[in-house]
Amino acid sequence: MNEKPILDACCGSKMFWFDKENPNVEFCDIRTLDRNEYYPGRYIEINPDTVCDFTNLPFADNSFQLVVFDPPHLEYAGDTSIMALKYGKLKGDWRSMLSDGFDECMRVLKPNGVLVFKWSEIQFPLSQILPLFSKEPLFGNRCRKRGNKTHWLCFMKGI
């Protein structure tokens, strides 16, 4: 049984976390990567607590109070590019993968738990992604002023 209240379902290099070793977070990713210098003086490491696919999480139903879902958002990136290294890459039937991943994140949420979804519109607008999900967000930032293409949205299980 999981004791941590928070799940990051696809943590990558934990870029947006203030504490990348937060003991309250179960960090998951399908990838691992030893510390790697991708640009002079710039490093990346992908070291999840649990290696798994976010479409098939190895946790019981109703396990977490908060789930962070920040899936890959790039389809058009070279397999060995810095962008694919940092953010992962959408492959195959990625629309079904995102839909399945959202449903899986909702499954592991406790009743009234919160899912925070992050999406960057580098290649696909949020308007193409939200219809893939089985719920509508409660709130989030929809403003695209000043070139901001990253969206944070909040969902709640049971509402």
List the main descriptive attributes of the protein structure presented here:
159 residues; alpha/beta; seven-stranded mixed sheet; two-stranded antiparallel ribbon; 16% helix
Describe the structure.
The chain is α/β, with parallel strands linked by helices and 159 residues long. Helix content is 16%, strand content 31%.
Q: Please give the largest β-sheet.
A: 7 strands, mixed
Strand order of the largest sheet: 5-2-1-6-7-9-8
Using only C-alpha atoms, the radius of gyration works out to: 15 Å
Question: What level of helicity do the residues show?
Answer: 10-25%
Give the class from helix and strand content and strand pairing: alpha/beta
Q: Kindly, what is the distance between the CA atoms of the first and last residues, rounded to a whole number of angstroms?
A: 26 Å
* Amount of beta strand: 25-35%
Unreliable stretches covering 5 or more consecutive residues: none
Principal-axes geometry comes out as globular
- Summed over residues and divided by their number, the pLDDT gives a mean of 93
Total helical segments: 3
* Secondary-structure element string: EEEEEEHHEHEE
